[in-house]
């Protein structure tokens, strides 16, 4: 297949959706497909680079969360679309809406992914508590973009349920974003001077790293724990001040893939404190490296699906309970070592290889149906569905 992937930007390596799109593009190419990226920063031989679109106020706010908006260039994008079999959309913004209109005009089959969780928007607007506001965003995205697609890629069963509950009528394909196969357990886990706790993720309100700092401050082993927060974002200064106030030993860093893998392999415990999460590839990468996780049990997060038992869950935003869980794993190294292997095996369920196979099926289903519609067929051939709304 020749596949065009439309995403506003592809050159920001701190944005999870960008990294997902890059992994998918590289993985599809490795499987023999031709992939064209339409994005700001696209620089591949077949890619279509677009210029950045400036939106007053919104551009400045979005930049803090590693988002740029692409400008629609009809002549350039039409040429890029001329020989593609399907166009897949990552975001629901203006570039994608214009490209969807163009693809429909050209008779090209299309699919879309749901990566922009409304709560990510509301938490950064300090309105995460307001459910009607979040419902309004779900409705806006449905009416202005997703209602035009027959197939939607959902990175988790959690977000598929959210879309079904909010009236999304397209066929919902539950496909993990998939983790890079380079994330594996170390041949031998090193002994650290301190108990190494780590979390990967943007330093943003909805990721809730502050609760980890507060939990370590309450830990019975506080002086023997070192925390590493891997990521960038608008909350960094607040988190630094909180750690200094509570006298918690914490390091802030952002690492390239090779160094990230090494850091995870050399850590003792992974904590994922996010209140809002569509999937959390960062958590999958950690458990793929054999790290036992402790995950916030939030009703707005898909990440609890990665916990194998209650020892790896804590009540959302409950620092006291998180401190108890951290202390448990600190005090039971043999159990932690045993669970490490179980988690590494469990992670393989979310491998990029599996995700690419399922994505190929979604693309093939859409292309098949589009051809039959074009031919005026009255009966559709049976097809495999991963998640069908009742």
Quick overview:
By secondary structure, the chain is of the alpha/beta class. The chain has helices at residues 16-30, 58-63, 74-81, 94-105, 118-124, 131-144, 157-165, 210-218, 236-246, 257-265, 281-288, 319-331, 333-347, 352-375; strands at 2-9, 34-40, 48-49, 86-89, 110-113, 151-154, 171-174, 195-200, 225-230, 250-253, 269-272, 276-277, 293-297, 300-301, 313-315.
Query: Any idea what the CATH architecture of the largest domain is?
Result: 3-Layer(aba) Sandwich
Give me the strand/helix succession. EHEEHHEHEHHEHEEHEHEHEEHEEEHHH
- What is the number of E strands? 15
Radius of gyration: 21 Å
CATH class of the largest domain: Alpha Beta
State the end-to-end distance.
31 Å
Give start-end ranges of low-pLDDT stretches.
384-390
Explained architecture:
With about 400 residues, the chain is of the alpha/beta class. The chain folds into 2 domains: about 1-180 and about 350-375, Glycogen Phosphorylase B (Rossmann fold), CATH 3.40.50; about 195-350, Rossmann fold, CATH 3.40.50. The chain contains 14 helices and 15 strands. It has helices spanning about 15-30, 60-65, 75-80, 95-105, 120-125, 130-145, 155-165, 210-220, 235-245, 255-265, 280-290, 320-330, 335-345, 350-375; strands spanning about 1-10, 35-40, 50, 85-90, 110-115, 150-155, 170-175, 195-200, 225-230, 250-255, 270, 275, 295, 300, 315. It has a 7-stranded parallel β-sheet with strand order 3-2-1-4-5-6-7, with helices on both faces. Strands 10-9-8-11-13-15 form a 6-stranded parallel β-sheet, with helices on both faces.
């Amino acid at each position: 297949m020749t596949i065009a992937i439309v995403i506003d930007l592809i050159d920001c390596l701190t944005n999870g959706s960008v990294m997902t799109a890059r992994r998918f593009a590289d993985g599809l190419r490795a499987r023999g497909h031709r992939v064209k990226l339409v994005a700001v920063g696209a620089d591949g031989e077949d890619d279509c680079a677009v210029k950045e679109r400036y939106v007053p106020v919104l551009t400045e706010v979005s930049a803090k969360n590693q988002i740029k908006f692409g400008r629609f260039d009809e002549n350039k994008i039409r040429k890029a679309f001329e020989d593609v079999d399907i166009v897949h959309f990552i975001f629901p913004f203006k570039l994608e809406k214009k490209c969807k209109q163009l693809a429909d005009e050209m008779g090209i089959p299309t699919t879309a992914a749901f990566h922009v969780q409304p709560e990510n928007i509301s938490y950064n607007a300090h309105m995460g508590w307001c459910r009607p506001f979040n419902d309004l965003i779900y409705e806006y995205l449905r009416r202005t973009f997703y209602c035009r697609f027959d197939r939607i890629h959902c990175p988790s069963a959690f977000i598929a349920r959210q879309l079904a509950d909010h009236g999304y009528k397209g066929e919902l394909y539950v496909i993990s974003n998939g983790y890079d196969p380079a994330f594996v357990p170390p041949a031998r886990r090193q002994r650290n001077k301190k108990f190494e706790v780590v979390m990967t993720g943007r330093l943003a309100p909805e990721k809730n790293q502050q609760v980890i700092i507060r939990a370590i401050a309450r830990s019975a082993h506080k002086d023997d724990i070192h925390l590493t927060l891997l990521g960038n974002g608008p909350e960094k200064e607040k988190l630094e001040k909180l750690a200094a106030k509570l006298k918690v030993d914490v390091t802030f860093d952002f690492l390239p893939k090779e160094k990230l893998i090494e850091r995870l392999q050399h850590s003792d415990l992974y904590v994922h404190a996010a209140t809002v999460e569509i999937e959390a590839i960062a958590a999958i990468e950690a458990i793929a490296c054999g790290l036992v996780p402790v995950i916030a049990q939030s009703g707005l997060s898909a990440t609890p699906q990665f916990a194998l038992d209650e020892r790896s869950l804590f009540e959302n935003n409950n620092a006291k309970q998180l401190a108890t869980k951290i202390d448990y794993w600190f005090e039971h190294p043999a159990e932690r070592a045993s669970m490490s292997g179980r988690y590494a095996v469990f992670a393989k369920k979310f491998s990029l290889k599996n995700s690419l196979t399922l994505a190929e099926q979604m693309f093939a289903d859409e292309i098949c149906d589009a051809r039959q519609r074009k031919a005026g067929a009255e009966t559709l051939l049976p097809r495999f569905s991963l998640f069908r709304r009742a």
